[in-house]
Amino acid sequence: MEPRLAVFIDFENQEIKVPVIMEFLKEKGKLIFKRAYGNWEMLAANAKKELTESGVDLIQLYPYGSQRKNRADVRLAVDAIETAFTHSEITTFVVVSGDTDLSPLIIKLKELGKYTIGIGAKKSTSELLISNCDEFVYYEFLAGEPVQELKITVGYNLLSKAIQVLLKETNPPWDASRLRGVMINLDPSFSERNYGYSQFKKFLEACNEYKKILRFVQRGTSLFISPELTKEFDITKGINLLLKAINTITDKPPWNGSKVKEVITKLDPSFDEQNYGYSQFKKFLEACNKPKKILELSQDEGGTLYISPAV
User: What number of helices (H) and strands (E) belong to the chain?
Assistant: First the structure.
């Protein structure tokens, strides 16, 4: 089912063009609620025209007393929480603001099971707000405004961390959207636009040009990703290390799988099956068996793995 979005815009103390934000959010799902908060009597007619043509409800905030600064934050937060309780079909809440005062709202929405997207100016957005959002996008990149792009080395390091996370969960290849989701979980401010690319695939290709780390697998219209194994972690090296470990063991087979892994680790403390692209030690052993069968693998009723030399 297509995600349903509610958008809340703090229009005080920031100059933004709402149509470019709405165009971006259409890629995220169906826009159900769109509200902007400000003193519209003080706003230029063309700005109000942009908002109304984008289908945004204008919530008027009249200036009163000394609490002008926080009035949009308070009203926006109250409306967002009310929407979360009264409209369970809304799955994603978008907050357009850079104000750190809205961090508690983001935290509460996540506690209520909602996905949160923040949009704000790079130069003025609170780091606390960014870190609390599930996903954060800098407004300047949406608007095509000139801003210093992040170095691809930063993206490469984040991509490497995401690959390690996925290797612990499941074997490749992975859907590209899943890889992107893990990167956002690690850094909510991640967006390929921050690096000057309009598509995630183009960002991945740039990382590969910097240092080859991925292999691309196209399945119909879907892009899948696998880590590129370097010569350092070629399976041949794993096979040689495994054979050396087996020859070191003096006990009669079959051997407990954890015992074999312990011996391998003693021979090479840097050993990790994930370096070879496998999330489990058993899958690493199965890969070592493919070029030429060197092992007999079995499991008892409790799922304990046992290893014997192939006959």
Answer: 12, 12
> Dihedral of CA 29/77/103/143: which sign?
positive
Percent above pLDDT 90 for the chain: 32
Bridge partners of residue 7, in order along the sequence: 34, 94
| Domain span including residue 32 | 4-143
Does one domain contain both 137 and 158?
Answer: no
CA–chain centroid gap for 33, Å, is 25
Q: Total domain count for the chain?
A: 3
Smallest CA-to-CA distance from 276 within 287, 268, 264 is with 287
Say if residue 160 is in the same domain as residue 63: no
- pTM for the complete prediction? 0.64
The single-letter code of the amino acid at 20 is V
**pLDDT, mean of residues 273-298:** 84
Q: Last residue of a domain, which of 186, 211, 227?
A: 227
Same domain flag for 18 and 133: yes
SS3 category, 98: coil
Answer yes or no: is pLDDT of 64 > 80: no
What digits encode the pLDDT tens for the residues 3-59?
999 999 988 767 788 899 999 999 889 999 999 988 887 766 777 888 888 889 988
3-state secondary structure of 29: coil
Residue appearing with tokens 């990149």: 141
- CATH number of the domain at 212, please: 1.10.10
Q: Are residues 27 and 120 in the same domain?
A: yes
- For the stretch 167-177, pLDDT in tens is 878 778 889 99
CA distance linking residue 63 with residue 259, whole number of Å = 72
Tell me the C-alpha distance between 298 and 293, whole Å: 14
CATH number at residue 124: 3.40.50.1010
The pLDDT of 258-287, averaged and rounded, is 84
